[in-house]
User: Which sequence fits this backbone?
């Protein structure tokens, strides 16, 4: 049985982390931080957009800013050419 997260990675999804700053409902000038993480597709980030739409629609804390970091976890192998071989005994 293959993990659903692994299948998503094969489909091009990568790990996305968003740091969300939002205003407190009672104290709008006081900012609070929330960290969100899920697998998503860069550069459009449909999963993150869906979450932010939910936040805007259902939660009272107004969004101030969102900082996004994304990394594809499955990448092509990296090869380097070796010019010589050194043997140590």
Assistant:
């Amino acid at each position: 049985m293959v993990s659903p997260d692994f299948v998503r990675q094969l489909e091009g999804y990568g790990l996305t982390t968003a740091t969300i700053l939002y205003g407190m409902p009672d104290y709008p000038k006081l900012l609070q931080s929330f960290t969100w993480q899920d697998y998503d597709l860069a550069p459009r980030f449909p999963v993150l957009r869906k979450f932010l739409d939910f936040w805007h629609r259902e939660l009272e804390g107004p969004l101030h800013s969102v900082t996004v970091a994304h990394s594809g976890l499955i990448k092509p192998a990296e090869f380097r050419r070796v010019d010589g071989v050194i043997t140590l005994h």
Summary: The longest strand covers residues 14-23.
